Amino acid sequence: MRWPHILPLLLPFVHVAAAASAAAAAPLPPGVTFLYNANITVGLSVDVGAIPAGNVSVIPVIGGSLIGPKFSGKILAIGADWGLSTAQGYYYSDMRAQIRTMDNANIYVQMTGLMQGNNGLIYVRTTFQTGHKDYWWLNYAFSFGTMRASGTGYVVDMWYLNGG
Fold first, then answer.
1. Which keywords does UniProt give here (predicted)?
2. Alpha-carbon distance 61 to 40, whole Å?
3. N or C: which end of the chain has fewer CB within 10 A?
């Protein structure tokens, strides 16, 4: 039985073949489902001023509405966007707001995101918190979307990952 002595010599080739096979068999990306389109109305910006990281401004949320296939509702006049503008031209959004669905469920929403460049599009990651049984799934939804300025505030398009 001389083959056990050959195994150490073949091991590097086995690892290369396994790595090539793994690279060729990349997993399928998760599915994406549209969640809602929101129009957020905002008030006048309050300039906090320059801090070491950039300039901070607070933009109050004063209302709005959202429409989607799983729920629709209004955005209450609770919340704001705490934004940070950097000297390099980036804008970091940290918005918190309150949704009341058409069936009177309350959902707290937090969107954080980044605008890169001058296209006005902010890419956001959103988390939801609610105690309502019909929307409990939102507490665990991985949601993301885009936010852009409109005449009265922001337009937000939101999706969530729904598996592979």
1. Signal
2. 7
3. N
CB atoms within 10 A of CB 65: 15
Distance (Å, whole) CA 102 – CA 69: 12
End-to-end CA distance of the chain: 47
CA atoms within 13 A on the CB side of 130: 23
Domain positions in the chain are 32-161
Tokens (6 digits) for 163 = 């598996």
Euclidean distance between CA atoms 84 and 127, whole angstroms: 20
Give me the pLDDT at residue 50, please. 94
The DSSP string of 102-133 is TT--EEEEEEEEEE-TTS-EEEEEEEEE---G
Q: What is the CATH number of domain 32-161?
A: 2.40.160.20
Torsion on CA atoms 63, 37, 143, 79, rounded to nearest 10: -10
Q: Quick one: pLDDT band at residue 2, thresholds 50, 70, 90? A: low
